Amino acid sequence: MPRGGPTGKGERMGKPNHNEQYATRYRIDDGAEFGLDDIDPGDTGGFDGGKKEAQELLQQDIERLSDLQEKLYAQDRWALLLIFQAMDAAGKDGAIKHVMSGVNPQGCEVYSFKAPSAEEMDHDFLWRTSRRVPERGRIGIFNRSYYEELLVVRVHRELLERQHLPPQLVTKHVWKERYRDINAFERYLAGNGVVVLKFFLHVSKGEQKKRFLERLDTPHKNWKFSMSDVREREHWDAYREAYGEMIRHTATKHAPWYVVPADNKWFTRLVVASAIIEALERLELAFPELDDEKRRELAEARTILERED
Ligand code: ATP
Ligand code: MG
Prior knowledge:
By secondary structure, the chain is α/β, with parallel strands linked by helices. The chain contains 13 helices and six strands.
């Protein structure tokens, strides 16, 4: 990804640029030393305004994103792939819905990856996701992704057995090999103009419990409740370990992880929006310049239209 120098867009509405500040604060682009304890799920990045101010800020971000997407689409060079991973009830769906609310649906596609089908399991583990990588000019969102192969499949080892891999290929190195393959895949994407940003919404165990209880207590949230979510919660520590190790191995310059505090939904959304804006601004997107022929064509079209009565 090219690094544009200072964009000069640092000051908006007379405030320091929160986009850059939040993007930098939660970005992990070298995982070697990372530990999940480094980031507090309740952190609000020193934001001292109220909820209303946060909403106004998010609204500005949504408008900024809408502008940037229009240029991304018109320029038709880069693609943006946003990957969301989290424990249940961390707010993936809400973050996607709010942050992308200003984006033109024509330039954006969301895919949710659930437990793989029989057909999907008959292929290599990157197959189903690689088919959904966004084309140039587009934004692709993965709600869960190939990273599940290092999370749920690792926590529930029996899922690996169901993948029909030749047994001699499944050794104790299987997870390391998957980190390696994913890093290579993401490097390949980056080299082809697909900007990959990965978000881990980091919620605390206490906040997850509160949200599950809310789903039980609020009739219009009942549909979101699933018994299997409560069962997965019993594996909290194993997931935590798997997430930590996954980030340590797959946080790279060309495909960074953003570990986003997720106990306050309003803050999660600000951080996600900031990271996307910051990454798009670095691309120095612009509407395509007209060449002389195109300019002549526009002048001719004007003449034709003006000739009509
Ligand atoms: P929500 O609950 O917010 O609607 P969700 O993403 O949790 O969204 P679910 O249908 O509840 O959707 O869960 C999808 C399930 O599919 C998760 O438990 C996830 O771990 C599982 N899954 C995703 N990818 C794989 C995979 N490669 N192998 C096995 N299980 C997977
Ligand atoms: Mg779920």
